[in-house]
Amino acid sequence: MTDTTTVRNQVEPGTETASRRGLRASVREFFFAPEVPYGLALCRMVLPVILLYVVLRRWSHAREFFSSDGASAPLADNYGYFNMLPVPSGTMAVILMTLLVMFLVTMSVGWRTRVSVIGCLVIYTYLNMLDCLSTFTKYSVIASHVLLLLSFSRCGAVWSVDAWLDRRKRTDWTGPPRFPAWPRRLMQLLIGLIYLGAAITKIHTPTFFSGDQLRFWLMTDVNHSNPMGEQLTLYPVMVVTMAYISVVWEILFIFTCWRGHGRWIMLLLGAGFHLGTRQTLGLYVFPWVSMTTYLAFINASDVARWQGWWARFRPEKKDLPVVPRRTDWHGKLALAFPATLLVTAVLGVELEHWIDPYGIRRQEGPHQLVELDRATVEAMLESNPVMRPEDLVHSLEMGEMLVGGYVVGHKSTFRQGERLFAQCTLNPPHPDLMIECNLHDKENRLLDRVQQVVPRETFRANFLYVLHDALVPGEYSLVVRCGGQEVARRRIVLESSKNVAGRAPVAN
Amino acid sequence: MGVNEADGTAYEPGTGNWPGAIKRWAISLVIVSYLGSLGYGIVCHTLNFNTSSHPAMYFVVWDMFCGWSAYATRLHIVGEGEDNKYYQLAPGPWSEFTPYGDLSRHHYDPFLNHSSHIVRNCLAHTRAKPMRRILVVEEYWAKKYNLPESVWTRFFDEPQQKYSYFQLRQVLAPNGTTVRRFPSWLSRQSQLAVSARPLSPHPNSGAPGLSSELRATMRPFDGSSSGRMPRLESGSASSLFPAADPERAPLAQ
Prior knowledge:
The structure holds 2 protein chains of 2 kinds.
Chain A: H1 4-10, H2 15-32, E1 34-35, H3 38-59, H4 62-66, H5 75-78, H6 90-109, H7 113-129, H8 138-152, H9 161-169, E2 179-180, H10 182-204, H11 212-218, H12 227-232, H13 236-256, H14 260-281, H15 286-292, H16 300-313, H17 329-355, E3 370-372, H18 374-382, H19 389-392, E4 393-399, E5 401-403, E6 406-408, E7 413-415, E8 419-426, E9 433-441, E10 446-448, E11 451-454, E12 460-466, E13 474-482, E14 485-495, H20 498-502
Parallel strand pairs in A: 7-14
Antiparallel strand pairs in A: 1-2, 4-8, 5-6, 8-12, 9-10, 9-11, 9-13, 13-14
Chain B: H1 2-9, H2 18-47, E1 71-81, E2 86-88, H3 115-124, E3 131-142, H4 149-155, E4 165-172, E5 178-181, H5 185-194, H6 212-218
Antiparallel strand pairs in B: 1-2, 1-3, 3-4, 4-5
């Protein structure tokens, strides 16, 4: 039996309380330490520019994508929550979209920052949720999170029109104001948790670490063009390596991104990762929205250091004559913001009416439907739905060794005595298959037949040929057959062995 | 402005700064709520629990890599007019908008939840002839045909000849009402292979409860007599396919 008295006496009086107080103080310091919100100000300036690219492209389609006068596609419908959000009329959708453009501009320059950020948050999220086909994606979600956190913050306190106006009003201005750090901390935690969630997704995804699914993603063209990704499919070992690195980085990020070298290493790796997805996966907006959150890792000491560097190159300011400041315009400026919004909204409605997105008011009347070729449509309806054997095979690769389950050292010319690894990659889903990888000579005579059962859960069949001396130098072919039908063929050239060429004849 | 506000949250017990204390509590509540919702999303995602229970879950579940199939997909929305001609109903004739690359908007609807809205909108804003029915046809091809020639020649000696499979996914009435839905070609392939017995037939126009107008839109896709319906039952039903990995909507862009 345990002597509880003894256990209790092992704890020094006051130690537990002290450690608890220490944790509380650390948490308080973490979230509530006052600081100048430089990082959030940078977020406030950069994010709207990125979102403007997204929003302006869709502005003229507002009626079609977000209104009851179009074909809105509410996200909630996909979850079975029909009519969860009201769908606005066409004109109202145009007004909201126009206001969103205006709010993004004013947010970026920091004019009426709090109102602008809240306006962006509400309108952007609302409209996005009305179009899950062509507007709402995961980068929209991240942007909404960032807007939410910016709306809590005082990101307009520096580097903004608001800050400039405030400084002009004050006579006792002593420096940029400081606020608790918690919105910035939440933004840092947000991106860290996003990466953690993404890592969990990858861990859940079957065949992610084998590189199979990543390879198929690299050759997917539902996003922008990604020629580098298509070339990367030639190097699956590199793809697998990158898959492991990305998961390790995503898990480590939230633990190591806070200070010192870890912060810069993680952020630089992240920037490289995101810019890499632009080249390999064709993602254009997602990387920039994600990297915007990295600006939350910039703190006041970074800015002070950069200002010091900049001061070395900046020409010294000349003392300008002091101009007496007028203050009577402050009252007028207060009305300028709502007036600007009102005028912009009216102009937006008028412009959209003039653009006539559906072409209803054209002289020749509404558009005619595009007629399709009858034979083409009927071919669609009569197409054979049974999968062709050649479509079961994704690739046939030849090389000199296997690394990580993949053929490397791709080549089609071998020497006698070398080993030839042939790998037949299959497209999922496929049935249990009997695959042959046969060696044919130049006259297409079958020299060697190798068969292998490939179960449904396997995506690759490997075949090893030792090109021994009995094969005379010349041209050969590797022929893959599936279901009794030839589905792939690769030509190989066999050259004489170096040893054979230089070997002296044996004297009898 | 700011300095005072920052000081206002710096509450210390015994100072009597109650507004600052209340503000501090409110902020703490926001922090806990926000981190709690993010944490809930991570837990649900990890345990695969409640991830699709509400649209709000999309804001806290980070499933950016949810699997990609070996086949590329496109959607064709075709109207069959009463004049016996076929018309393209998506994209609308007024639009060339491509949201994420060079694909039109309707291609990003793999579950066909919004095709009827797209059809209605197109018919409402064009000089459309009266329609007999609307067909949503899915096109599939192996992604290896997406590879450029330089990569293809590293895999095959044969020339690259793309081959597409088509599958009728949906039949809509002229007013946009969904009349029939069919599984995707890829999942159908998996089902055919897994099932040792013939799969149950699709519902046909003889099914009870259908009005004569809707029934009329379903012909001639019933049964095999028309010869136009893809004969899915002719697949090799004796072999066993693994479950297909359906390609999700590219919401992770």
